[in-house]
Amino acid sequence: MSRALMGAIGAVTMLSPAVVEAQSGKWVGTVSTLRSAGGSADITIEPRGEKQSRVRLTVRNVNRDMRIAWDIVAGQCRDNGAPIAPQAAFTQLQSRMDGGGSATANVPKLTSGQPYYVRVFDPQLSPTDDNVWGCANLAEKP
Fold it and tell me: Following CA atoms 93, 76, 42, 133 in sequence, which dihedral angle do they give, to the nearest 10 degrees?
């Protein structure tokens, strides 16, 4: 094969688009420590059609019989970003006697490649990144 032909093949190969993995629409995150509430929280997000996602927040080892509020925010922890849905969309949870509990919510589908985070906080307060019990950046699963 001539050098000119090899060079042309190399140039075409370099111009070909890279294979892009399709995103699953699934996201996860873990708040390892919840100040004031004790314990930790995990969040999982699964797509529900083209426009919505189903979110599940699960807490472990928190103080028993406690009300816990949460939301999902655009940006990264400490950005003081805007929630992706009204607070009413994020069902508060009540911890059980064993310190566990979970809540679910339907929210707008998260945009692939954009940063998001979950905040867990006292339902008596209007949440800011400075007064939350815990925060975790969400990771998109391929």
Answer: -50
pTM attached to this predicted model: 0.81
**pLDDT classification of 95: cutoffs 50, 70, 90:** very high
Q: What is the CA radius of gyration of the chain?
A: 21
**The one-letter amino acid at 82:** A
Q: Is the pLDDT of residue 142 over 60?
A: yes
Q: Are 99 and 62 in contact (CB under 8 A)?
A: yes
Q: State residue 5 phi and psi, 5-degree precision.
A: -65, -40
Residue 62 burial (CB count, 10 A): 24
How far is Cα 134 from Cα 107, in angstroms, rounded to an integer? 20
